[in-house]
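Quick one, probably user error.
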């Protein structure tokens, strides 16, 4: 048989355990709450990771879209410039024909002038413009000097004669202007 005093001590200890830790069910519920809290934290960190990935993917897609638009624009301007380059001699010849028609009847002049205007309007619709006029300052990025005249009294190089107009699409030069420069 057990000693009643030992038995009493066991009862006191178990009641202290009960007070401190609660019932077995309460302990199970407490551990389940801790497990659920842990799962919630895990899910939150996964959600944050997925959000960050989505933001990164959206930014990458936006950069890809902008880069594609830019490449598409460059390809378009290159192709347009290449196609127009083969038409420029026709425009040059029309200008020469118009200049040489001083004694020709007015109908011929008007006809050539109309065709020339139509070609220039078509080029403008494609964002192509001409440059290189007499009196402009010489720019080696736009003009190609084939001869030079010496003039005293100026540091600037000025175009004194244009042999062939230059053309550009937006800011890209298709053909440099062929000019004579006086300096």
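Nope, works fine. Designed sequence:
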């Amino acid at each position: 048989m057990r000693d009643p005093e030992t038995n009493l001590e066991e009862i006191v200890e178990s009641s202290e355990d009960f007070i401190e830790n609660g019932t077995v069910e309460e302990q199970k519920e407490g551990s389940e709450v801790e497990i659920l809290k842990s799962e919630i934290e895990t899910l939150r960190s996964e959600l944050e990771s997925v959000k960050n990935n989505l933001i990164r993917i959206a930014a990458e897609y936006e950069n890809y879209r902008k880069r594609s638009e830019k490449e598409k624009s460059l390809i378009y301007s290159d192709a347009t410039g290449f196609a127009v380059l083969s038409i420029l001699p026709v425009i040059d010849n029309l200008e020469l024909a118009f200049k040489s028609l001083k004694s020709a009847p007015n109908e011929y002049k008007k006809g050539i002038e109309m065709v020339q205007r139509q070609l220039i309007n078509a080029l403008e619709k494609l964002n192509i413009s001409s440059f290189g006029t007499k009196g402009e300052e010489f720019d080696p990025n736009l003009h190609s000097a084939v001869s030079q005249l010496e003039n005293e009294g100026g540091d600037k190089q000025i175009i004194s004669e244009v042999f062939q107009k230059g053309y550009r699409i937006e800011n890209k030069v298709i053909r440099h202007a062929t000019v004579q420069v006086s300096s």
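The beta strands are 128-131, 143-149, 158-164, 166-169, 172-175, 177-182.
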